Amino acid sequence: MVKQLMITLNSDLFQPKTAKQIILVKPSLEFCNITYKTLTFLGASAVFFWMLFPILDDSYKDYRLPFPAWYPYNTKTAPFYEIAYVYQVLGSYFTAFTNVSIDALIASLNMYVGTQIDILCDDLRNLHDPDEEGISKKLIACIKHHKGILSFAGNSNEFVKWIYFLQF
């Protein structure tokens, strides 16, 4: 489904047609980039502090792991303690960055719906043409674009609904 969404976004129907429309889209792209960087920083910070907690409260002396867990070996002895510790830290980083990537993808899909609506509004504002047939062609293109946006938004919502459900 993600592949189909990306194919739709790369189609000619969804591309900006003028320099003004490209400028219209840039702030949304920059906002998505800032959102991704912020989520990455927050996720990395959370895992970093989880990793440091046993060290900061001196519970590492009692072989306390960042997260309580059962292992089929004694984690109170070296090198099993260190292996379990590194395993938990790496697993936490993997989980955090997976969640960040999924959330950034969902935010990007929603941003693309918004920018497509902005592009459609710009096309509608610039419908004027001295030739009546030219206006009809532009209006038909706008209607197709609108239907494409609605279809893309529906497919995006279909894709993310289970992700949202599982995250909650």
UniProtKB/TrEMBL annotation:
Domain of life: Eukaryota
Gene Ontology terms for molecular function: odorant binding; olfactory receptor activity
Biological process according to GO: signal transduction
Name this protein carries in UniProt: 7tm 6 domain containing protein
Topology in membrane: Multi-pass membrane protein
InterPro entries membership: 7tm6_olfct_rcpt
Gene Ontology cellular-component terms listed: plasma membrane
